[in-house]
Amino acid sequence: MSPTVATARLLLLCGAVLAPLPCLAIPAEGEPPPDLRLNDPKPTTILVRVVGQGAMVLGREVGSARVTITDVVTKQILATGIQQGEAGDQNQIMRTPRLMEEPHYSSRPAAAFTATFDLLHPTLVEVTAEGPLAYPASSQRASTTVWLVPGQDTTNDGIVLHLYGYIVQIEHPKSGEPLIAKDDVILRASIRTLSGALLRPHGDWDSRKIHIYGELMIGERILERLQLFYNSDRARFEAPFFVPLSKDAPEGITLRVVAADPSSGKVGVGKASYPVLSERLPPKKP
């Protein structure tokens, strides 16, 4: 038999009998071997950062934020915990220009929440954030849905959730403190971003661009709107007001302070209530 005929018969035999067998599929030179553990779970890490919109990361100073990751299909909570760390580098976050793909929060240490799962298949999860935890009256909530792919980590800046609002606290008079009718009282309030930075004129968080005012209320009725001014010595916003007569406010009064940014939609509200006395009580005798 000639070599040509022998070769033809060998090729015919391979095509009819051997070609369907996967063992003859030889990887191209330089390609990695096939993954024979396609159905094994793969560790997958997701990093989440909770930040104040237009501000810094929610860190220890404001009690941080709680993060919860839930499987959208099964509703099972896969991970929950508190974001750990500090607010981040203000110069890097607020003043440094960067390209879209460059890290915004992770170029310097900043608070984050990290969880690792063993995933078998792509999983749609809902990531929810709530904070700041140290200021429940100012707490906000945000969530988003993302796909997690087995073995593909989400790190660097991670999944960033933005919370909208301000921390508004009435510091004087103290909530619940009795006020005397017709007294001239100073309302004093602090206003912070949700990451804890104080608002002030000409700062990174410029109070001149924010609508900040107070309201004196009896029940749900607004008796007077108060224009608040920044006191640089105290780093607080202040306005004087007269306490109404006790007969006009038998259930006391409420002070409300509002901070609203028309450009971003961020709003913060602080409230405190006070009984009103008709006259100043004499000090107790020892």
Total strands = 17
How many domains? The number is: 2
Taking the sheet with the most strands, its summary is: 4 strands, antiparallel
In spatial order, strands of the major sheet run: 3-2-5-6
Q: Return the CATH topology of the largest domain.
A: Immunoglobulin-like
Radius of gyration, in angstroms, nearest whole number: 31 Å
* Silhouette: elongated
Percent of residues in helices: under 10%
Task: Show the helix and strand layout.
Elements: H1 3-18, E1 42-52, E2 66-71, E3 77-82, H2 90-95, E4 113-119, E5 123-131, E6 140-148, E7 154-163, E8 166-172, E9 179-180, E10 184-193, E11 211-218, E12 221-227, E13 229-231, E14 236-242, E15 253-260, E16 267-274, E17 276-277
Parallel strand pairs: 1-7, 9-17
Antiparallel strand pairs: 1-4, 2-3, 2-5, 5-6, 8-10, 10-14, 11-12, 11-15, 13-14, 15-16
Summarize the structure.
With 286 residues, the protein is mainly beta. The chain has two helices and 17 strands.
Distinctive features:
2 helices, Immunoglobulin-like, 286 residues, elongated
Task: Please provide a written account of the structure.
By secondary structure, the chain is mainly beta. It has 2 domains: 42-163, Sandwich (Immunoglobulin-like), CATH 2.60.40; 166-277, Immunoglobulin-like (Sandwich). Helix content is 8%, strand content 42%. The chain has 2 helices and 17 strands. The strands form 5 sheets. Strands 3-2-5-6 form a 4-stranded antiparallel sheet, with no helix packed on it. Strand 11 (211-218) and strand 12 (221-227) form a beta hairpin. The longest helix has 16 residues, at 3-18. The chain starts with a helix and ends in a 9-residue tail after the last strand.
